[in-house]
Every structure is written in C-alpha cells, then in structure tokens.
Amino acid sequence: MSSSFSEEDGTFNSDNLVSNEFDFQDVIPNLLKTASHSGIYIGVGPEQNFTYMAALRPSMAFILDIRRGNLNVHLLYKALFELSADRADFVSHLFSRKRPDGLTAKSTAPEIFAAYLSAKSSEDLFDSTFKAIVGQLNRQHGFPLSSGDVDGIQSALANFYQFGPDIDYNASRRARMKRADGTAIPRGGGATYASLMAAQDKNGEMRSYLSTEENFQFLKDLEGRNMVVPVVGDFAGPKAIREIGNYLNSIDATVSVFYLSNVEGYLDQQKTRIFLSNVATLPLDENSTFIRNHRGPALASMLSEIRTFLHQQ
Hints:
Order of helices and strands: HEHEHHHHHHHHEHEHEEH
Low-confidence stretches: none
Number of strands: 6
Strand order of the largest sheet: 3-2-1-4-5-6
Strand content: 5-15%
Distance between the termini: 30 Å
Shape: globular
Structural class: alpha/beta
Radius of gyration: 19 Å
C-alpha cells in the first residue's frame, strides 16, 4: 500500500522532523467524547500522530505527507518500535544514547527524558542502530528501499543523534544557517522533543505516546502488525487519499479521525476544492472528525465534524 498508494515526492519548507504544535494535545479530551474508537486514523507529519493514535486506539493508520522524507521518518520509527523492548530502549535508539540506569516501565516521561538529556550521544550506538534499522526494513520485511530512502533514514537518525532530546522543529535549519559572523543562530523558545513528550492536555493529563508504557506497547503492536502505513501524497493530489478511500471502502472500514495540522493554510482555493472532493471519497460517519489548526499565527488545534464541514464548504 505504501508504494502503490503513493504519489511523486513533493517539497515543503522544512524537513519537519519534530512537531511545532505544543498544545496539540488540548483537543484530546473532547476528541475522545466524539470520535469513534478502533476506527481508521489518517494524519500528516511526524511524531504527534503517535500521541493521537495512542489516545484513539485505531485499528489501522495512514500517515499521508507530501514529502517522501516523512515516509522515511516513519519507516525509521517503525523499525525502532519493533527493535525496542520498552520506552527507555526506544529513546536510547532514537537519540543514540546509552540507556541510563534506573529507568523502568513505571518511569514517567519527564524522568525518562531528564535521564537522556544528561546522557552522552554515542557514535557507536548510532552506527549499530542505523544498521539494525536498515536490516529490519530490508531483511525482516523485504521493503524495496531505494538508496534515497536509506539516505533519508540515515539523515533523520543523524539529526536525532546530533541534537538529542532538545531537538525542535527548526534545529536542522538553524544548523544549516549561520550569522554573518559565522556563529550559530541561537535556539528560540519552540517545543523540544523532550517537552512535547512531557506536555499535558488542557486537563493537566500527560497523553504523549511516551507518557506511559501502555501507550508505547499499543503502538509497538500496531507497527509490528504493519498497521501504520506511510504514504507520499499531496492533500490535493490525484491519487493518495482516493486510494486510501478505495481500500477502506473495500473492507467496510470508517475513518475516525483525519489530522490535518496546518496543511489547509498551504492550499489555495482550487486545491482546497480538490482536497475536499478527495476527502468525500473516504468512508465517513457522523463521528468522523477533522483535527485542524486555527488560521492565524498561533498553531492552536480545533475539531470539526467532517461531513458537516464538507457540506458547509
């Protein structure tokens, strides 16, 4: 599906390795009251999808993004979920840092990331993890990885290795850019990976996919059964969303949630019409929900019932 549903590789203004939506968990309490559980999840972008999936417990998920780089990131994640016994192992592999002593299944996300923030990165662990990832995808699964895919996976892992749990949305961009005097551009106040994993919803509950061992093990099982499918596609493209819809209709499944992030802000009027016509081919019910961003400078999430939204446009 990942290959046959995908469109040509597209471009975006960032490598988007980490979410920049610090408050994206705020909609989860209301989402759990309205959206169907065990349905189909569709989302865009990197790790924030795992947090939504951990809350919703979908039976299957499709991660749709215009960049093949995002597919590579999700292949990296798939392999790491499968190769890691628990959250502490997963974070060790993701950031190429030796597992600190004392971390257990009961450790909180703040405890896990505090331990790793003070741990040193390891080039040897990076090399062994990268080889294990490629081996898992090539030999265990037989995925037809191109040389570009392998390079993309290595590049993503290298960024996590270089910046560690303090990586944020603009980390790799800052590393490529310098001031006129050649000095590095300082980090702003954006959300880091560590802070996103310790973030709370509006009720004060931590819901990140690494906040509990239960969340992690649910996703590990989903990935192990090949139920998270990364797809390359433009929201207004001719193929990806419609292929997902054709498949879901053929198995009588229903989309529970479609997470859009701020993609709507990048669609002009014509592309918006095409996108909405694509969405209309998906199997929906009265509980199917968009997670959208408010238009404007703040990336604040909101919920919209999909069928009502389509009728209003």
